[in-house]
């Protein structure tokens, strides 16, 4: 792992929601683990609309990224049921 490759940012299209919002995952490299910050942000400005969660001490990059995307999905599903 080389620290100059981090932080990494991934954007997630939120199909069926406002086109003004996107999901964003920022990955930080720690000593031998990764930290994933998961937010819903405004598409244009990048301003945080809602902080979903932070996943600390994830040992595997790919598994952690998959878990982060799942956290966005679970959050949106929970909000849809709550507003239904």
Helix and strand arrangement:
Blueprint: E1 8-13, E2 21-29, E3 34-42, E4 48-58, H1 61-83
Antiparallel strand pairs: 1-2, 2-3, 3-4
Summed up:
This protein has 84 residues and is α+β, with helices and mostly antiparallel strands. The protein contains 1 helix and 4 strands, in the order ββββα.
Which key features would you list for this structure?
84 residues; alpha+beta; four-stranded antiparallel β-sheet; 1 helix; 4 strands; globular
Major beta sheet, strand line-up:
1-2-3-4
Spell out the helices and strands N to C: EEEEH
User: What is the averaged pLDDT score?
Assistant: 91
**Range of strand content:** 35-45%
* Major sheet size, sense and barrel closure: 4 strands, antiparallel
| Contiguous uncertain segments of 5+ residues | none
Q: Can you give a write-up of this model?
A:
There is one protein chain. With 84 residues, the chain is an alpha+beta fold. The protein is 27% helix and 42% strand. It has one domain. The longest helix has 23 residues. The mean pLDDT is 91.
């Amino acid at each position: 792992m080389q620290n100059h490759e981090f932080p990494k940012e991934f954007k997630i299209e939120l199909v069926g929601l406002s086109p003004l919002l996107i999901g964003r995952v920022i990955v930080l490299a720690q000593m031998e683990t990764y930290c994933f910050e998961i937010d819903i942000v405004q598409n244009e400005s990048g301003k945080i609309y809602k902080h979903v969660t932070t996943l600390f001490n994830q040992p595997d990059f790919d598994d952690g990224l998959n878990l982060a995307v799942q956290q966005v999905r679970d959050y949106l599903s929970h909000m849809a049921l709550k507003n239904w």
